[in-house]
Design a protein that fits this description.
Oligomer: single chain
Number of domains: 2
Length: about 400
């Protein structure tokens, strides 16, 4: 065999062993629709996801000062995280190896198994963590991993138990775009908090009165939390309403409204400008009033849960509570493109605010017929949606284009 033939043969082997699995993985990540059981796709996707997140977790152990969130790293147990990482590696490795042996989704499983091997070689769950500086720039990789795992485990189960649309697939159309929004929003949390903190102190610091803050902090926990949520929601309501009624601001908010399928991931679609601006508007009054740290921590949990839950593919009977708190039924109407839903249901926590200000949806229908922006003019793709407010057109999309 000539040297040229040997080179071609070697290249073919490399293509089959390396390029083919990567191409298959890339192709799978570009698909949407239901995963049918019994073909190895579900276990392969689980193995691939856990393998990838495990590798990210190992990197976070190696570089905690740059990849972990300061507020979180002081609260969680490193030993517990090591155990979770070990379990994830074992599950991902076991699933991918079993599929390789059984010949099910072998190429995809090879990629998942390779991720497990790389994570293990880099130290796995035994990476030592020494002393490190606490005031370095960071991208919140740990928050991304924990939130993605937690949200997937909790909200996917809730959606399957109490679905509004029973035939809706977990991997619905444009899920890839919203996952990118989810990731970027978490990775820039450090930058966002830095900007928000700077703006709050420089724009609103002069309004702070320590005696009044002491009065607020001495209110009992539950009424103080309810007051905190009310203050935040009043700020959220008027900021949200401005996004709808001011054309320039709508171009940013239209990104969030462009999602056409509601589920737990849909709320992640958001322009970075809106992400930061809304946090300033909402946190400024909370900062001025000086709510206690315990109440603020509780509020963060409340807003984090409702932000995901109210976009979820969930239907429950709420009774009279539907007039008091914002539920998925209430917020789905806000995302609808039905005529009676346009510029309605602005509240994020307390539904009675919309009834008080006359912006609650009034419709004989139980559920919306369609979602998204009227005219469906928003392009798909994270980068194009971030650029849309500056150069995109709000003219209705040509269905034949």
């Amino acid at each position: 065999m000539s040297d040229v033939s040997k080179h071609k043969l070697t290249q073919q082997v490399i293509d089959r062993t390396l390029k083919a699995p990567i191409e298959e993985t890339r192709e799978l990540l570009q698909r949407d629709g239901e995963l049918k059981p019994g073909l190895g796709k579900i276990s392969s996707v689980v193995a691939l996801s856990l393998g990838f997140l495990s590798l990210l977790g190992v990197l976070a152990f190696h570089f905690p000062e740059y990849l972990t969130t300061p507020d979180l790293r002081h609260k969680y147990s490193v030993d517990t995280l090591r155990q979770l990482l070990l379990v994830a590696l074992l599950v991902a490795g076991g699933m991918s190896l079993a599929n390789i042996i059984l010949g099910r989704m072998r190429r995809l499983s090879m990629v998942a198994f390779a991720l497990v091997i790389v994570a293990t070689v880099l130290g796995g769950s035994r990476v030592p963590v020494g002393d490190f500086p606490d005031h370095t720039p960071y991208i919140g990789l740990d928050w991304f991993i924990l939130d993605l795992l937690g949200s997937t485990l909790v909200f996917v189960v809730i959606e399957k138990l109490f679905p509004l649309y029973k035939g809706q697939s977990l991997f619905r159309k444009e899920w890839q775009t919203d996952l990118k929004h989810f990731a970027v929003n978490h990775f820039i949390v450090g930058l966002a908090l830095l900007v928000v903190n700077f703006l709050l102190h420089h724009l609103f610091g002069w309004l702070v009165r320590s005696d009044f803050q002491q009065f607020v902090q001495h209110i009992r926990f539950v009424p103080q939390l309810l007051l905190c949520v009310l203050v935040a929601d009043l700020a959220q309501y008027w900021a949200h309403r401005a996004y709808h009624e001011v054309p320039f601001l709508w171009r940013f908010h239209a990104v969030h409204h462009s999602v056409k399928t509601m589920d737990w991931l849909a709320g992640s679609r958001q322009h970075m400008f809106e992400l930061i601006a809304t946090r300033v508007c909402v946190l400024a009054p909370l900062y001025i009033l000086g709510f206690s740290e315990a109440v603020m921590n509780a509020y963060i949990i409340v807003v984090g849960f409702q932000a995901v839950f109210n976009h979820a593919n969930v239907h429950l009977r709420w009774g009279p509570l539907k007039y008091v708190i914002v539920t998925p039924n209430f917020h789905h109407w806000h995302h609808a493109s039905d005529d009676e839903a346009i510029d309605r249901n602005y509240a994020a926590h307390y539904a009675f605010l919309d009834y008080l200000f006359g912006t609650a949806v009034k419709s004989p229908k139980k559920f919306p017929e369609r979602y998204g922006v009227v005219g469906d003019y928003m392009p798909d793709g994270f980068v194009r949606q971030q650029l849309f407010p500056f150069r995109g057109s709000t003219k209705p999309r040509d269905p034949e284009a």
